[in-house]
Design a protein that fits this description.
heterodimer, A: mainly alpha, B: alpha+beta, 5-stranded mixed beta sheet, 17 helices, 21% strand, globular
Chain lengths: 334, 555
């Protein structure tokens, strides 16, 4: 197991190197450059040319790539051309928000999706099953931004239960340690700050959970249905094992493998930023900033953020692979 | 066991929530002085970029700067006319190159040091002597646009500096010498970029120490955490993780003290999210109200403030594009102008308060000329002019931007469609070209040669006709594609005229000349709006977005 993990981590190096090259070429091939968004309507050709020259964007691509790699290898991801703050700072300030949001959204999605999927499978073909499938379809079909606005209108504006925007009430003077606002509140015993940060997570997490919940529910349902029809389940039933043992040890364990893969993939994609949810809730995560950075041709941010996201994604996949062995001891990683 | 735990959890959460709510409500009022300890949270569309206004050129940085800093002269409240700021008087000598600024007495910076002529000169010298990365156009954009160059230019594109010297004659008299006469000086000093900052704080926090390389510019400590001015508010904190900037009443302010103790600017980039946050009372105001929301918000009782329009949308005719042969012909350009029904566009696509633009600057600004050729909608005349020009089967590439709205251009695609339909009515074939505002569109129309017609506009930086007319037409650009040395020469003459009345006349002549030469068609002036909660009053909308929140009162 240890060797497997080390080998997988080593495999990251060539993957990331290839990714930097591909990204660099692709980004610099996009028409336009950062000078346009910097200058806006004021962009005279002379000013544009000066900015491009000063930034070295008029140099051959391989020279620019060489400079980027030199900086990267010394551990420096550069500075955002639009905010002039280090890319690492920008990332570390936003990523905890994305993680908090993903964690709560996935908790909701898994906590509701798996039981619902199991429930639907056990009652396959009944009206309750149809209702569950229908609800999950609705989750997939409803546009996220629309759902966000609806939740805000009902639970924030009309009922006043939750806030509509941001990560924390602006009048709370909270101490920041890790950048995870809820965690920081708990660590510093600023309970009001923790509770408030949590309240700010609820609506965006509910919105963000809609699609993963539906996907997990459907995969669980299909997987449970398939496993239920397996011979070993019938054998277990004929042996007279209790329902609890059959469900827990035989059906769920076997049915969970595809669900775990799906959860891993979904978590990875949520961690790469939820553009719409972040925008609708003015939530400072990495998604919306990445999109703005594409518009601004903020090359350092794009390169840095995408690299970090790739690392996170690969690590999550590694965790999923390892989790297989726990769910199903027959699976061995080598 | 579970149920009691759950109940206990809910109880704790409820207590915490109530405590938070209680804290938010416990604000004191001091009605005798008209000030309160309340907090106003204002929603803005984007983050400020930097808090040292000398390094800023974006609206959100300027919005914060306007509360914390002051300039020597400033636009009047709610208008564009220049009035006293930190200088009570300012006078030129006969040649127009030596300006005497008589400064306000008893003004102190937020760090307790005195504001005086030496501080003023320190700021001028700081801008002038900027070196290295500070000379990057992305860093000190406004200084180099207005003053042209530095003490030691590090780029061949920079010219001679307009600034020559500053002398502190006594504590309240600063004498600034310029190398030539220009309309930009002193009117551009009202820009927040020329705010007077505390020399002590600038030195203490290394304000000029911009680090890194040109592709890796890092702002110094001063610009992010120690902005120090003389304004009614002082800096408290910039919470980049939660996207807020907090400022607090400066009790040592020389003028009327800020009415509301704390202002927090909170970034909510999505328009609808700002609206919902206002309705939920998370913010008590926001800027850039969608034109379609103005009436709805008013009906709900919110205080919607509409700024007088200080901008322009124009339809540019490129004389060096695919159809350069046709568009270089004045008759064709006139035909295009007569073909477009601007009244219909303004009444259909602009909010109330908008007007048809008849020249390339807003009315109310010195130099506006009532006697320019007006090109009232007349499709028959357009057809006739095209026939006279001998142009048939004219096909024009007409660019418009996507994913953008501007107060001068609330619905680019719709405006494009209306104009295209008008042109088609007079027999012109339009090939629409849609491009994403940044960078594709701006790149295409500002540097390319593939556009015949395009929509673009400008929002004025300061109250001077040159800031509109000169920006568009004082030199040859790929955007317009023409070379008109007479026009360029007349701009230089107007800019260098020291006598204000004579200069105004020269601008009037220029407006006439431009509208006869017709490089494009001015389309509309569109106002923008900001909104405050029902219980917030006192802020006055400014055409230059020079709003001061120190007068905001929460009832």
């Amino acid at each position: 197991m240890f060797r497997f993990i080390v080998r997988r981590l080593l495999q990251l190096v060539p993957t990331l190197f290839g990714l930097t090259l591909l990204l660099f070429v692709w980004l610099h091939r996009l028409p336009g450059g950062p000078e346009t968004s910097i200058l806006g309507e004021r962009g005279t050709p002379a000013l544009r040319a000066r900015i491009r020259h000063d930034m070295g964007l008029d140099q051959p691509l391989w020279v620019q790539y060489g400079k980027f790699m030199k900086r990267l290898l010394s551990g420096d991801l550069g500075t955002s051309v639009s905010t002039h703050r280090p890319v690492t700072t920008e990332f570390l300030e936003r990523f905890p928000g994305t993680v908090e949001l993903t964690a709560l959204a996935m908790t909701i999605a898994i906590g509701v999706g798996i039981p619902l999927g199991y429930y639907a499978a056990r009652r396959a073909g009944t009206a309750r099953d149809h209702v569950s499938v229908g609800v999950s379809l609705l989750g997939i079909c409803t546009p996220v931004f629309f759902l966000g606005y609806i939740y805000k209108q009902i639970f924030a504006v009309n009922l006043g239960w939750f806030p509509t925007s941001g990560r924390q009430d602006v009048t709370i003077d909270a101490t920041r340690i890790t950048g995870f606002f809820v965690l920081d509140g708990l660590l510093t015993r600023e309970w009001d700050a923790a509770a408030d940060a949590f309240m700010h997570l609820v609506l965006p997490a509910l919105t963000l959970a809609s699609i993963p919940l539906a996907v997990i529910m459907r995969i669980t349902r299909a997987s449970v249905l398939e496993v239920t029809q397996e011979d070993f389940v019938r054998t277990a039933e004929s042996k007279g094992l209790t329902n609890r043992v059959i469900r827990g040890r035989h059906i769920m364990r076997n049915a969970m493998l595809p669900v775990a893969t799906t959860i891993g993939l979904l978590t990875g994609s949520l961690l790469s930023g939820a553009v719409l949810t972040e925008t609708v809730f003015a939530f400072n995560g990495i998604g919306a900033f990445l999109v703005t950075s594409i518009d601004n041709r903020d090359y350092p941010v794009l390169m840095g953020f995408i690299l970090m996201i790739a690392i996170v994604y690969l690590l999550i996949n590694l965790i999923v692979d390892v989790s297989y062995t726990i769910i199903d001891p027959r699976v061995r990683v080598r | 066991m579970r149920a009691p735990r759950l109940r206990a959890g809910i109880a704790v959460a409820a207590v915490v929530t109530l405590a938070v709510a209680g804290c938010a409500e416990s604000k004191r009022d001091d009605s005798s002085s008209g000030t309160s300890d309340k907090t106003l949270v204002f929603g803005v569309a984007g983050d400020a970029k930097v808090l040292d206004p000398a390094l800023a050129s974006d609206g959100e940085s300027f919005r914060v700067a306007r509360q914390m800093y002051e300039t020597l002269i400033r636009p009047e409240e709610g208008g564009a006319k220049l009035v006293a700021g930190l200088a009570e008087k300012w006078e030129p000598d006969a040649a127009g190159t030596t300006w005497t600024f008589t400064l306000r007495k008893g003004v102190k910076f937020h760090d307790g040091t005195d504001f005086n002529a030496e501080a003023v000169c320190y700021n001028f010298d700081r801008w002038y002597n900027a070196k290295g990365l500070l000379q990057n156009p992305d860093v000190m954009y406004y200084y180099q646009t207005i003053f042209g160059g530095f003490a030691k230019n590090e780029s061949a594109d920079l010219g001679e500096s307009l600034y020559k010297s500053c002398q502190a004659k006594d504590a309240t008299t600063a004498i600034v010498q310029t190398t030539k006469v220009t309309s930009k000086f002193p009117s551009a000093l009202a820009l927040p970029a020329f705010s007077i900052q505390s020399p002590t704080a600038l030195k203490q926090y290394n304000a000029d120490n911009v680090g890194g390389t040109a592709d890796n510019i890092q702002y110094p400590e001063y610009a992010n955490t120690h902005p120090t001015g003389t304004g009614p508010y002082k800096f408290v904190k910039w919470d980049t993780a939660n996207k807020t900037v907090e400022i607090q009443r400066y009790d040592g302010y020389w003028g009327e003290k800020a009415k509301t103790k704390t202002i927090i600017f909170k970034t909510i980039s999505d328009l609808n999210a700002r609206k919902q946050a206002l309705r939920n009372n998370e913010i008590q105001g926001y800027d850039l109200v969608a034109p379609a929301d103005v009436d709805a918000l008013k009906n709900e009782g919110f205080n919607v403030l509409t700024r007088p329009a200080f901008n322009i949308l124009y339809l540019a005719f490129n004389q060096n594009g695919p159809a350069k042969a046709a568009l270089s012909n004045l008759k064709v350009r006139q035909a295009l102008a007569y073909a477009v029904n601007r009244d219909a566009i303004v009444s259909a696509k602009y909010p109330s308060g908008s007007t048809v633009a008849l020249e390339f600057q807003p009315p109310g600004l010195d130099g506006y000329n009532d006697a320019v050729t007006k090109y009232e909608y007349n499709p028959d005349k357009a057809k006739q002019l095209l026939a006279e020009a001998g142009v048939t089967n004219l096909t024009l590439k007409f660019w418009y931007p996507t994913e953008v709205t501007r107060p001068y251009m609330p619905a680019p695609k719709d405006i494009h469609e209306l104009i295209a339909a008008d042109l088609q009515k007079v027999g012109i074939t339009v090939t629409p070209v849609a491009a994403k505002w940044s960078p594709d569109y701006l790149n295409g129309v500002q540097t390319g040669t593939d556009h015949d017609l395009h929509l673009l506009g400008w929002t004025g930086d300061y109250a001077d006709a040159y800031n509109f007319l000169g920006t568009f037409f004082d030199h040859q650009t790929p955007e317009w594609g023409f070379n008109n040395p007479t026009l360029f020469g007349d701009f230089a003459k107007a800019d260098a005229e020291p006598d204000a009345a004579k200069r105004t006349q020269l601008y009037k002549d220029l407006n006439k000349q431009i509208m006869d030469f017709l490089p494009g068609l001015p389309v509309a002036h569109g106002p923008s709006s900001l909104v405050f909660a029902k219980n917030v009053t006192g802020v006055k909308a400014s055409p230059l977005t020079d709003e001061h929140y120190s007068t905001a009162e929460i009832k």
